[in-house]
Write a structure and sequence with these properties.
Layout lengths: L2 H32 L15 H34 L5
Helix pairs in contact: 1-2
C-alpha cells in the first residue's frame, strides 16, 4: 500500500465524520428556507405530502453527496501536498 493511501486513511475517516455534521447543519438551514419549517419531514410523517417528503429527501441526499465529495477531494489534495502523491 502506498504511503499516501496509508496517510489518507485516518484523514479520510475524520473528514467523513466532520462532513456528515456539516452536511446535516447545511441541510437544516436550506430546509428552513425551502420548506418554510424548522424540521424536515420524515417519510412516515402522516401530515406531510408526498411532494414535501420527496423534496426533502432529494435535497438532503444532494447536499450530503456534494459536501462529502468536496471534503474528500480537499482531503486528497492535502495528502498530495504533504506526500507528493495522490491517495487514490
Amino acid at each position: 500500500m502506498k504511503a499516501s493511501k496509508i496517510a489518507y486513511k485516518p484523514v479520510g475517516m475524520a473528514l467523513g465524520a466532520a462532513s456528515g455534521v456539516v452536511a446535516g447543519g447545511l441541510f437544516k438551514q436550506v430546509w428552513k428556507v425551502v420548506g418554510h419549517d424548522e424540521d424536515a419531514p420524515d417519510a412516515t410523517d402522516e401530515d406531510r405530502s408526498w411532494q414535501e417528503v420527496l423534496l426533502a429527501a432529494t435535497l438532503q441526499g444532494a447536499i450530503f453527496a456534494a459536501v462529502k465529495a468536496a471534503v474528500d477531494r480537499g482531503g486528497a489534495t492535502a495528502v498530495r501536498r504533504l506526500t507528493g502523491t495522490w491517495p487514490g
